[in-house]
# Entry
Amino acid sequence: MKNFIMAAIAGVFALALQNCYGQSSSGQSTPASKAPEYSHTETAPVKKSNDDWQKVLSPEVYRVARLKGTERPFTSEYEHSKEIGTFYCAVCGNPLFKSDAKYESGCGWPSFFEPISKKSIVEAADNSLGMHRIEVMCGRCKSHLGHVFDDGPPPTGLRYCINGVVLDFEKAKTAEKKFNSKKKAESGS
Ligand SMILES: [Zn+2]
# Structure
């Protein structure tokens, strides 16, 4: 009996280890889990209940994007990033901001003076926490991104103050490479 219990424990332990390794190896090559609707080119609106979003998003992305949370200031890897490329909605992949509209506001979150287009985002009055602010949401999936203030630099005078956790960044060179290899594949052999 004792042997049987020991074997069972060892079995469970081995299984747990296996799961662990499985997760870490797949976690290295693939980004955080994405919804099937995630796309950098698709524009059809994405509508899902928060219960369904919670199944596909990481807890921190879910908290900010769907429960209108705020990431801790000065914690985003994108706050001081000067790389050239495009910022996408981390929830649905919608293109939101170009790096050339990004600037150092010092407010603690990635800041932009304009979105890629008027349709990239939607705005709504936010009177929570005793403040009058304008909330910024993704134009495709309506996820909460941050707020827009009128103390930004020219030419717009706007400061889109965005939670970095709900942004995905793709470097321009990577995009170019992908484009070229696709072209090659289409025209090749
Ligand atoms: Zn989105």
